[in-house]
Predict the 3D structure of the following.
Amino acid sequence: MEDAKHFIGGGWAAASGGETIAVIDPSDGETFAQIARGNAADIDSAVAAARAAFEGAWGQSSAAERGRVLYRLSMLVTACHEELAQIEARDTGKPLKQARADAAALARYFEFYAGAADKLHGETLPYQAGYTVLTIREPHGVTGHIVPWNYPMQIFGRSAGAALAAGNACVVKPAEDACLSVLRVAALAAEAGLPPGALNVVTGFGHEAGAALARHPGIDHISFTGSPETGKLVAQMAAENHVPVTLELGGKSPQIVFADADLDAALPTLVSAIVQNAGQTCSAGSRVLIERAAYEPLLERLAARFRELRVGPSRADLDCGPLINAKQQRRVWDFLSDAQHDGIPMAAQGEIAADAPESGFYQAPALLRDVPPGHRLAREEVFGPVLAALPFDDENEAVALANGTPYGLVASIWTRDGARQLRLARRVRSGQVFINNYGAGGGVELPFGGVGHSGHGREKGFEALYGFTVLKTIAIKHG
Ligand code: NAD
């Protein structure tokens, strides 16, 4: 990987403005590398390279050939598993075990979409006598991918993996806070035989390189993962060119626990759903809604778990690493100080390891109880290791609380009552519902995305492939 360069047209390219951005290790706040500060001219070059690939070798490759390239890429990612995990852990601050899981998931994304590439097909439709009508799924062309800092490898893999499988050429703008793994994987893709220009990565700030990509007239589709505010801006910019967008914007996902649930099974999952990646997960289970009869006993057990949680540098591989940056740390502090000011009881907190550098962006996991449903802690995404507990008295109240935010990304329902499982799964407004589990271990195969302020469109699974294609109808009159 070359310092401070973009990856454009199959090789490293210097930033046209010559400026760089410092890469900071969240574990100690120190600068350890520089990335290129991309601008509109760099985005122009990347879009031109992608267009040439789409109209050239990549656009003309067969679905089976695309699948083979993606499969080789999956193998290369597996071969470089530890290297990628180390890069990701240092860049994002996440514990090494989490970064290793992310590297494995990245390989799996490419493997899944390698296998799916030549199984994407249209239909023949019954129509009037004398006609044959068929549909074909065509790639959009050049797709733009704006990636956040929380899971750079995974989110890049799920988005660009599906787009490439469907035959698009990609321009990726990873987050300024964490993009080193994405640059490394772009180089691996070239090694795997991806033609020059099929995958381009331009680094830089969102308001510069990101905005230039979102409003570029040469882009045919944009997929964005990040905050609702930026998602709205991206959709507005894309609308100037009538470009379709997929938005994945996070959530305030409820974990609903009934008194009849297997609480022993639920407990570790209720905790990991919020502390994974220090709570900086779009699908974090950041609210736990507990039936009144189980409220005190479960809170007691949750509190005991929270007190055991340890936070430290990525290399220490504890329960949580630091937050991504000082801005994110201030955001979490702001939520917690509001909670304290409003008298919301802190049920338990984890601990920051004594040897964690003072200059790192650490936050002890926090469990807050009796959070009023209207409080911002019960309604807004914190994006930190903060769990809000709320009691409920019956199913209707559980549903009202679960649906009581503008979001709808993920929900879990913990109960042994089969009829209730189905009733609630239908009533909860959410893109994914998990019964007696949370997240099904990531599930590359499972379509993922939100409703409401969580966004629209679906990533992952076969569904993502449909999103990266345009359906064309061909009607043939043959008499
Ligand atoms: P963000 O939404 O601003 O950034 C996400 C991506 O969008 C980055 O690549 C960024 O460079 C880019 N971007 C920013 N401004 C842009 C613009 N004007 N045009 C085009 N692209 C732009 O998120 P953030 O500021 O890094 O974090 C703020 C909050 O967003 C977090 O506290 C968290 O609540 C939320 N967030 C959610 C996710 C998620 O996975 N859903 C990921 C990251 C952050």
